[in-house]
Design a protein that fits this description.
By secondary structure, the protein is an alpha/beta fold. It has a single domain, classed as Spore Coat Polysaccharide Biosynthesis Protein SpsA, Chain A, CATH 3.90.550. The chain is built from 9 helices and 12 strands. It has a 5-stranded mixed sheet, with helices on both faces. It has a 4-stranded mixed sheet with strand order 6-9-11-12. Strands 5-10-7 form a 3-stranded mixed sheet. Helix 1 links the parallel strand 1 and strand 2. The chain is globular. 40% of the residues are buried.
Length: 286
């Protein structure tokens, strides 16, 4: 089975609403994954107790920016999880049963892997009911109908075995580029990078990015995160644009339950697009 781990923000206002939606969607999966919430922001302990989830309150934070550090988050989850397969997921992502179906296929075929999926964005402002399969399927269909899929770099969950990621830089969580590095590093460690976007609907509930210094309250443009000081700090830790990978760098695509190698001629344009993007950004010095 699999252990989910996530670092919520404080459970208040709109963020509290969408985080509760996300967690309740995970609890509807069958079988229910182990769920670990990390951090001590307002409401996390109470939510963990309410839903009988595991809670790790103590995290390491950057001294100046007070952001949680990725290396500590993953190591804490690795030590405390019950299962050998992990999924780091943002607490604004609603999942459906298709996630576990794809996970079983991926983990059954690959010993070392990183499973990712581009997210589908939706504006959700209030609590939603997910206690029936019909309601969940209607919501999933709505996400596909809106069809606001983020770019190839917009994965918000990372499923992988405990054996992956031997050494992790102290990235600032939620400040950009660390997620792209995780894709680069998985391939560097000879793991399979599998893009499951076609088979998995990861519903991202839109929100602002006011937690990042330099981004105004109410600002929902995620690109502002990359242009903030903390974003450039993470880019430096990643080793620059040459190590900023995305879903187009995957060496496998899962489509209708079948794995396709992206080194086939029909998929080569994915690698080409990603490589050209990195070259352009390096020339511009970004």
């Amino acid at each position: 089975m699999i252990t989910f781990f996530s670092v919520p923000k404080a459970f208040k206002g709109h963020i509290g609403v969408i985080q509760t939606n996300a967690i309740e969607s995970w609890l509807q999966l069958k079988p229910v994954p182990e769920i670990i919430l990390l951090g001590d922001d307002e409401g996390i302990a109470e939510v963990a107790q309410k839903y009988d989830l595991r809670h790790i309150p103590d995290l390491k934070y950057h001294a100046e920016w007070k952001a949680p550090l990725l290396d500590d988050i993953i190591e804490s989850a690795r030590k405390e999880s019950t299962f050998d397969n992990l999924c780091f997921i943002h607490t604004d992502i609603i999942l459906f049963q298709d996630f576990l179906k794809a996970f079983r296929l991926v983990s059954g075929r690959f010993e070392k892997y990183l499973m990712v999926s581009s997210r589908f964005n939706m504006n959700i402002e209030s609590r939603i009911e997910l206690d029936s399969e019909e309601k969940r399927q209607n919501l999933r269909a709505s996400a596909l109908n809106v069809n606001d899929m983020y770019t190839s770099g917009g994965t918000d969950f990372f499923a992988f075995p405990k054996s992956l990621y031997k050494k992790i830089p102290p990235f600032l969580l939620g400040r950009g580029y660390w997620d792209n590095w995780m894709m680069y590093q998985a391939l560097h460690e000879k793991a399979a990078l599998i893009d499951t976007t076609t088979d998995v609907v990861a519903l991202h509930q839109n929100h602002d990015y006011a937690h990042v210094q330099g981004v105004a309250s109410g600002e929902r443009d995620g690109d502002r995160v990359f242009k903030a000081r903390q974003g450039y700090y993470n880019l430096s830790l990643a080793g620059g644009q040459k190590n900023v990978y995305n879903n187009y760098d995957a060496n496998y695509v899962l489509k209708n339950g079948i794995f396709h190698s992206t080194w086939r001629l029909s998929f080569l344009k994915r690698h080409l697009k990603s490589t050209i993007r990195r070259i352009k950004l390096r020339i511009k010095g970004k």
